[in-house]
């Protein structure tokens, strides 16, 4: 894998920038509203015409609170589903026998990526702006697919490093902890000396698509399409 000449970027920052570009073109962005149901043209469920957002103001007991607001219906000629891995609405589309989206593909497989974000002082001897490392295997056993990644970058004048581990979710060992495996990785001599003198300022995790081209479903159906992780890319 050759990363020379590439850029290290924040996907979150790119998404924010893309949002401003979309809004400048007249796109309405509604953050904070989760899509809850797929809307079909009729009871035959053979053409999608939009979605309904989730009701808000529901108490833990399932009862409506004073601030209850019902979900709203958003209609469109084409609805684009981009929910990440195993999105709740995408799963209902897969189950729709009229669309047969997964009729001629292999089952999808998944992995879990766990990442920590570290910060370093300006004079840290191991910080190397632009350094990228990808590795396969360690600390996972030979039966478990996965690997690690590391990026050294400067964000607004601050030296930072992203360190993470991806573990396929078909691992056989029921006691395996992807987070625990990341902690083992940090004790490897290479990473241990890099982390000395730094501090962890954030962490996170997300599921990843791993099925490959043979697991791609049919991507379009009447009234909509699948993109991104929802589609299996």
Please provide a written account of the structure.
The chain is 18% helix and 34% strand. The chain is an alpha+beta fold. It holds the Pfam family ETFQO_UQ-bd.
SSE layout:
Elements: H1 11-24, E1 35-40, E2 48-53, E3 56-58, E4 64-69, E5 73-75, E6 79-81, H2 88-95, E7 110-120, E8 132-136, E9 146-155, E10 158-168, H3 178-186, H4 189-195, E11 199-209, E12 220-221, E13 224-226, H5 228-231
What oligomeric state is this? single chain
How many domains? The number is 2
Question: What is the residue-mean pLDDT, rounded to a whole number?
Answer: 92
How many helices? The count is 5
Shape: globular
Query: Beta-sheet strand percentage?
Result: 25-35%
Query: The CATH topology of the largest domain, please?
Result: D-Amino Acid Oxidase, Chain A, domain 2
Rg on CA atoms, Å: 22 Å
Runs in which pLDDT lies below 50 for 5 or more consecutive residues are: none
Sequence of secondary-structure elements: HEEEEEEHEEEEHHEEEH
Query: Biggest β-sheet, characterized?
Result: 5 strands, antiparallel
Helix content: 10-25%
* Strands in their spatial order, largest beta sheet: 8-9-10-7-11
CATH class of the largest domain reads Alpha Beta
Kindly report how far apart the N and C termini lie. Answer: 19 Å
Structural class: alpha+beta
Tell how many strands the DSSP assignment holds.
Answer: 13
Architecture of the largest domain in CATH?
2-Layer Sandwich
């Amino acid at each position: 894998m050759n990363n020379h000449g590439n850029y290290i970027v924040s996907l979150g920052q790119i998404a924010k920038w893309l949002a401003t570009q979309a809004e400048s073109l007249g796109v309405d962005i509604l953050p904070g509203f989760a899509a809850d149901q797929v809307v079909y043209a009729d009871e035959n469920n053979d053409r999608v015409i939009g979605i309904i957002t989730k009701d808000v103001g529901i108490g833990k007991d399932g009862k409506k609170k004073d601030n209850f607001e019902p979900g709203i219906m958003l209609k469109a000629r084409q609805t684009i589903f981009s929910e990440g891995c195993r999105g709740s609405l995408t799963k209902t589309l897969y189950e729709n026998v009229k669309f047969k989206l997964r009729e001629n593909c292999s089952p999808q497989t998944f992995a879990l990526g766990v990442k920590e974000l570290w910060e370093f002082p300006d004079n840290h001897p191991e910080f190397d702006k632009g350094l990228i490392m990808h590795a396969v295997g360690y600390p996972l056993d030979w039966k478990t697919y996965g690997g690690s990644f590391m990026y050294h970058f400067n964000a607004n004048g601050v030296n930072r490093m992203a360190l993470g581990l991806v573990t396929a979710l078909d691992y056989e060992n029921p006691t395996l902890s992807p987070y625990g495996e990341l902690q083992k990785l940090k004790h490897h001599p290479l990473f241990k000396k890099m982390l000395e003198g730094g501090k962890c300022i954030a962490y996170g995790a997300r599921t990843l698509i791993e099925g490959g081209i043979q697991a791609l479903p049919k991507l379009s159906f009447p009234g909509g399409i699948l993109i991104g992780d929802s589609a299996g890319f």
